[in-house]
Design a protein that fits this description.
8 strands; alpha/beta; single chain; 8-stranded parallel sheet; globular; TIM Barrel; 214 residues
Length: 214
């Protein structure tokens, strides 16, 4: 299991140091949640902040765009140092054009599903995707409770990829920690986003290693 600490749970006043802390603790990716206050009812940070903290690690930056019009900003996040860009299938931008723009920048594209959106919504785009992110909480705020009833989507997407001979990673985000990661692993999740479970751990390295073991 790959573990991507969610910077949404870090101390924003020392984000660079927090990224270094997670890097030294053995994180696989860094997960950066970009929220516009419109698509979701919260604001976080944008491309300029990501560009500033890019130098604190060589680990992949997994940038999750919770914004209404991601197509307008793909070039900015590419220039800021994103390695992976995921955006919501429920957004206002043209989905195919946004995926193409991400790929044109040499970045891995992914689509995200809110809890209320069925797995089938990503099926038309699977052949162009590197990953699908299944939200296991309502997007917008950290620290929410894990929604186990989202895991059938993981199995459905995995089955469709297998049927079509596609290799697409499945990522899960929301309420994931020691008590819930086994369910994710059993469903076939490849990458788990973990926030408070690692940032608030007494020993982040031990916490990440325990999660990676699944």
């Amino acid at each position: 299991m790959k573990i991507a600490p969610s910077l949404l749970s870090c101390d924003f006043s020392v984000m660079g140091a927090e990224i270094e802390r997670m890097d030294k603790a053995g994180a696989d990716w860094m997960h950066l949640d970009v929220m516009d206050g419109h698509f979701v009812p919260n604001l976080t940070f944008g491309a300029p902040v990501i560009k500033r903290v890019r130098r604190y690690t060589a680990k992949p930056f997994d940038v999750h765009l919770m914004i209404s019009e991601p197509l307008r900003y793909i070039d900015d996040f590419a220039a800021a140092g994103a390695d992976i860009i995921t955006f919501h299938v429920e957004c206002d931008s043209d989905i195919g054009a946004t995926i193409d723009k991400i790929r044109d920048n040499g970045i891995l594209p992914g689509l995200v599903l809110k809890p209320g959106t069925p797995a089938e919504a990503v099926f038309p785009y699977l052949d162009k995707l590197a990953l699908v992110l299944v939200m296991t909480v309502e997007p917008g705020f950290g620290g929410q409770s894990f929604m186990a009833d989202m895991l059938p989507k993981v199995r459905q997407i995995k089955a469709e990829c297998a049927r079509r001979g596609l290799t697409v990673l499945i990522e899960a985000d929301g309420g994931i920690g020691e008590a819930t990661i086994a369910q994710c692993a059993a469903a076939g999740v490849d990458v788990c986003v973990a926030g408070t479970a690692v940032f608030q751990a007494d020993d982040p390295a031990q916490a990440i290693a325990q999660l990676q073991a699944y």
